[in-house]
Amino acid sequence: MVQGLLTTSVGSFPKPAYLLEARNRFAKGAISAEELNQLEKQATREWITFQEEIGVDILVDGEMYRGDMATYFAERLDGFSISGLVRSYGNRYYRKPVAVGDIRWREPISVEMFKYAQSLTDKPVKGMLTGPYTMMDWSFNEHYANREALAMALAEAIHQEAVELENAGAKYIQIDEPAVSTRPEELEIAIKAMAVVTNGLRAHTLTHICYGDFEKIYPRMLDIPVDQIDLEMANSHYDLLDTFRKAKFTKAIGLGVVDVHSHVMESVDEVADGIRRTLEVIPASQIYVDPDCGLKTRTVEEAKDKMRVVVEATKRVKAELN
Questions:
Q1: How many whole angstroms separate alpha carbon 142 and alpha carbon 139?
Q2: Domain annotation for the chain: domains and CATH numbers
Q3: Strand, coil or helix: 159
Q4: Which of 28, 168, 217, 283 lies in the 20 to 30 Å Cα band around 35?
Q5: Using 50, 70 and 90 to split pLDDT, how confident is the model at 92?
Q6: How far apart are the C-alpha atoms of 136 and 41, rounded to whole Å?
């Protein structure tokens, strides 16, 4: 039997209509936090059930309880205030964190929902955190001397959350760093901060890095101290494989095989071909197959269809190898 080619997803799934409505009602004071929490758990349960039904190997909770990935954590750490709405991309807005004091971890942030999701399945569920470099880059800094100082303070706080997730049973801990590829000159800060986050962890650690000019940070990005780096490949037509031929990719890879920013549905044939091309460069034992990024921008049905294609294409290639 072939080792590797485990299927998973990057983290987020779209929220069902009833949960979007409930979040709006909660913001207006029309329902209680407990009522919202119960609907978040319902949506989480539905996504866990779906992933099990189609045969995903490593599950995610879908982030039904989160809005923006940086603000969600900033609201629950000491030292942050939250600004008004700031435009991120397209017509999407978020409330930007503002560092106004010493950043400190206060109490578990993501552990309760991780434990709930893990209780619903015998398969591993990933613990998912936003990394210190990205939180720094996506925040205003009104307290620390410079960007590195803020990133390192965040690293200490996020490390404590990672330890809590591991103690709660997380075998996989993902520390998302989508901002790393946008400022190649600050890669050293990201590496230094991640070393603090993952220090002493026994779990399989991974980071997701979003779209960027990876040739400017490769192969140095392999020094980010995690076991696995998750990369979009479908959107860029697997161009990174040429880079990996020149300098070997030495870590496990999260192989993004469906484009999460397109309504176009990839075929099983297309995705299977992408996996085969990757196997010419990276051994199956190092490959985890998933979408390019989180699927929260797709409709529920689009997200489900793209995940089905990921699983079916992977099954086809594994059958060929066996």
A1: 9
A2: 6-67+110-321 (3.20.20.210)
A3: helix
A4: 168
A5: low
A6: 29
